[in-house]
Design brief:
- The chain has nine helices and five strands.
- It is α+β, with helices and mostly antiparallel strands and 186 residues long.
- It starts with a helix and ends in a 12-residue tail after the last helix.
- This is SMC-Scp complex subunit ScpB.
- It holds the Pfam family SMC_ScpB.
- Keywords: Cell cycle, Cell division, Chromosome partition, Cytoplasm.
Length: 186
């Protein structure tokens, strides 16, 4: 019985949408060959709701849109508003994205290199990318004036869901006929 409850918890926890009792029953039957009734499913859900009603948990299981979903308890909503507001600030402008792409594919690269490719001053954009910790200073170039070298950071890898820089798509990966200009006969 506890095993079934844990599987139902896992299903509900992993879902970003409300899950109906009938869906839980079907998934348990398909995945684990467990055949339970709607009443049993609702009893298990009730036990999960009672468990998460305890003040030790920051989330609760609620019924919404004829399904069940884990949500954060209301007493934590203000904290989460601050978290999401911070994440919102981390959105990247088009110019920052262009600059970030140049740095990612050409790293280590100087600000002058970025500006030559983009054709515009990139001082502000690089400063903002440093503030957001998407890029980092990786050293100094061995040229006159010893300009700073920039590369991507661990935060960049997390932001874009990469394990290593070589996971970035190559130009060959992006070359398709729908991305080409003009006739192929030219």
């Amino acid at each position: 019985m506890n095993e079934i409850i844990r599987h139902i918890e896992a299903i509900l926890f992993a879902s970003s949408e409300p899950v109906r009792a009938s869906e839980i029953m079907q998934w348990l039957k398909t995945a684990l060959a467990i055949d339970i009734t709607k009443k049993e499913t609702q009893d298990f859900i009730q036990k999960i709701q009672e468990k998460y009603a305890d003040e030790d948990f920051v989330m609760q299981l609620i019924k919404v849109n004829n399904g069940y979903q884990f949500v954060t308890k209301e007493s934590y909503h203000e904290t989460l508003q601050h978290v999401f507001a911070q994440r919102e600030k981390k959105k990247i402008s088009q110019s920052a994205l262009e600059t970030l792409a140049i740095i990612a594919y050409r790293q280590p690269v100087t600000k002058l290199d970025v500006e030559q490719i983009r054709g515009v001053d990139s001082d502000y954009t690089i400063r903002k990318l440093l503030e957001k910790r998407l890029i980092k200073i990786t050293g100094k170039a061995a040229t006159i004036g010893k300009p700073l070298l920039y590369g991507t950071s661990d935060e960049f890898m997390k932001y874009f869901g990469l394990n290593k820089v070589s996971d970035l798509p190559t130009l060959k990966d992006m070359s398709t006929t729908e991305n080409s200009i003009g006739d192929n006969n030219e």
